[in-house]
Design a protein that fits this description.
- The protein is mainly α and 66 residues long.
- Helix content is 70%, strand content 0%.
- It is built from one helix and no strands.
- It is elongated and about 85 Å long.
Length: 66
């Protein structure tokens, strides 16, 4: 009974799912590695073009005297 066609089909299906999962994961990581250097360069260029602008902080709460 263990060698029925259904159990073999499940085994193949599970194996195929595992292969597709690992292939997708590898492609995702490869895309991330491919894009990261360009993203850092873009961020650096954006920071340089913005110049040294003062950081905006939360408005201070001034007490108003009546």
């Amino acid at each position: 009974m263990n060698n029925s066609p259904l159990s073999r089909q499940k085994k193949k299906s599970g194996s195929l799912i595992r292969i597709v999962f690992w292939l997708s994961l590898v492609l995702l990581v490869a895309r991330l590695i491919w894009v990261l250097p360009a993203a850092f360069d873009h961020h650096r260029a954006k920071q340089e073009s913005a110049g040294t602008e003062p950081k905006v902080s939360a408005p201070s709460q001034a007490k108003s005297s009546p």
